[in-house]
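Margin note: ligand = flavin-adenine dinucleotide.
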Amino acid sequence: MDKKLGNKIPRVPVRELDPAARAKHFEEVCLGYDLHEAQREASRCLDCPKPACVAACPVSIAIPSFIRQLAEGNLYEAASVIAQDSSLPAVCGRVCPQETQCEGACVLGKKGEAVAIGKLERFVADWSREQQVQFAACKPANGRSVAVVGSGPAGLACATDLARLGYRVTIFESLHEPGGVLLYGIPEFRLPKETVVKPEIARLQALGVQIETNVVIGRTLTVDQLLGEEGYDAVFVGSGAGLPKFMGIPGENLNGVVSANEFLTRSNLMKAYREDADTPIYVGRRVVVVGGGNVAMDAARTALRLGAEVTVVYRRTEAELPARLEEVHHAKEEGIRFQFLTNPIAVLGDEQGWVKGLSCQRMELGEPDQSGRRRPVPVAGDCLEVPADVVIMSLGTSPNPLIATTTPGLEVNAWGCLVADEAGATTRLGVFAGGDAVTGAATVILAMGAGRKAAQAIHQYLQQTSC
Ligand SMILES: Cc1cc2nc3c(=O)[nH]c(=O)nc-3n(C[C@H](O)[C@H](O)[C@H](O)COP(=O)(O)OP(=O)(O)OC[C@H]3O[C@@H](n4cnc5c(N)ncnc54)[C@H](O)[C@@H]3O)c2cc1C
Ligand code: SF4
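Resulting structure:
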């Protein structure tokens, strides 16, 4: 195998399902690399002495090192390099916004195309899952126990590291299945549940971690009870940010207006897209999705697969869309329409109380706001109507206040996020937190990184306290 080919060869394209065919079903769109393709792409990496890609990875995976092992055909070694810093590589390889992280910083991107780091990570992770490779064995049981609230990436990563350190770990999950957004939010066509998410969770259970579903912390049990009569030595809260936001415009309570979270939960968790499902899902003929993030793209592409014509309405331009580039590209390929610089001001209804469209204000871009993106400002007198049978609001989410309001001493900030230090320690002794519950809606890799950091902090805390 040639080494360090850089931009002398183009980035190896990844195989994907045909857009017209895949728009009608929920099978995974991206097929990934085979070994030959992966090694060829790996051979483009220059193995930079000061790799910008590592500095740009939120969990500092030793990227050139795993790519070198892959190029040389040492798949076990490649997988063990990744496993040092990531407990969900098959997930991250599929859903991380690589273009703004590792690949965005890759030196090859300056004059050509960045190394396809995400696709290589996915290849190695899929290989190691298929081979059922387990890397670090657990240390002997140390007699201490930790309760983890929530089974999303933050909770899963925290539980994995604590189990390996010898703790007895129980995850409490309010839904009937574990996985958090990986299960109920991100659709099957981006992140397969049976072949990717569930095996990752099974690997965690193989470490001895117990998962108790249908337990709502703050209702079924409180954090105080976990630390008291339930006998846990510490608690990690990774309860995410699942509370949807709405616009507060007239007509939002009409039939046919739903949050993206509800829509996606019906489809992903309750399998409403299947004909044999008990849970209904309604799309009508025309769906309008309001918003421009990953959640909006997922809702739009799900509605399309359920048979609707779909328009995404976004108040800025395409350049400001916060969704991953790949999702926007796939959405367009599949036939999703985009209506940019358009802001809904009212939902319009018929006599039966059902949605019939959106009244919108045309926008233009003004000065940058606090986020650095140019602020959309109304174009005076320029309004339009967009017809719709269903409107899906995808405007972001915030943490559910249940745990904070039922746990004395647990402080939240102005956005309702739990207050925690860098390591994840909250304002309540023995209670740690991380992921979307602390940052607000963010990314899988940041949640995973926060869970791992908190595991270390819990370990330090419990080493300083006696049994
Ligand atoms: C539709 C969608 C698409 C996304 N796409 C991407 C993407 O492409 N790339 C990316 O990096 N990120 C993406 N994200 C964001 C990413 O999924 C989240 O940032 C990440 O899942 C946060 O992880 P978490 O563990 O903090 O929380 P979550 O994944 O939200 O998990 C929290 C868990 O806690 C449970 N819980 C909540 N309250 C309680 C309670 N009181 N008691 C017990 N359990 C409780 C919840 O049921 C849930 O299972 C997406 C998010 C959504 C919604
Ligand atoms: S910056 Fe790009 S070329 Fe350099 S080590 Fe990272 S992936 Fe390889």
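The longest strand covers residues 355-368.
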